[in-house]
Amino acid sequence: MTRKTCILIGAPVDCGKERPGCLMGPDAYRTAGLTVALTDLGHKVQDMGNLAPASHAPDNGDTRLHRPNETIGWTHRLIRVAEDAMARGIPIFLGGDHALSLGSVAGVANHAATRERPQFVLWLDAHSDFHTPETTGSGNLHGTPLGYVTGRAGFGGFPAIRNPIPQENICILGLRSVDAAEKQALQDTAIHCHDMRSIDETGIARPLAAFLQRVADANGMLHVSLDVDFLDPMIAPAVGTTVPGGATIREAHLVMEMICDSGLMTSLDLVELNPFLDERGRTAQVMVDLAASALGRRVFDRPT
Fold first, then answer.
1. CATH code of residue 21
2. Residue 98 appears among annotated catalytic residues
3. Which residues pair with 261 in a beta bridge?
4. Domain count, the chain
5. Is there a catalytic annotation at residue 83?
6. Which one of 142, 192, 194, 253 is the catalytic residue?
7. Is 223 a catalytic residue?
8. Of residues 66, 98, 192, 223, which has the active-site annotation?
9. Does residue 179 fall inside a structural domain?
10. 151: which residues sit within 8 A by CB, 6+ positions away?
């Protein structure tokens, strides 16, 4: 296994939805031993601490969107930080809600463009997050990152997307909660979508292996965005958007181990952890274990 420089970037984004608590996520990952897990695998770890959003106009509640200006501030900051971190190692963005991926994905895509390599995105999530500020019914911008980074219209005020992700370079695994408007929009795209029924029917390894092969064939860079609600809430309850029927612990570790085996992952999001909803830190520990699996830990390495 190639030893890497892992750059931990705390992104306590808590403006992408109404239910508070995700701002505590970055420190929960640290408390759960993320640095120790990665250094035990032989990686070098650089912890940048927790970021703050770029300066932005105040949110005064004059829109149906939830704290859009703060989200814009975070997007500006994370794009710049992601671009810089990609030149130094593998950034691991510690969320924070999924609105952080507006910036993390846009930033890593900008870096990939400077290397003249295509950017791919593996989205591990119960939701497709393909809305725009104009189509979201809830007004929660954590449901818009894939809409933003693919260049959909309606993101006035946000940084312009310089390097949109081609739809065919995106794979969503674990879908089980998609509203009607989003479903219609997705059906008109080339995004590879795999819901839990298809995973039940064919297994999770087959669609993932096919996607990883496409990344490898294109000499692509792979961003992995892991949302807590990809997992079944029975094993990962600390998320404000629980949807029953998610991935099992073994399915999730298989995904991460396959990603590790491929050697393709160049950046990682760990998002939507709300420690306020956790049970003795067990969700944070599961997410740390999954990150470790993506970076080289194997089941037989773990103490029982």
1. 3.40.800.10
2. yes
3. none
4. 1
5. no
6. 142
7. no
8. 98
9. yes
10. 161, 164
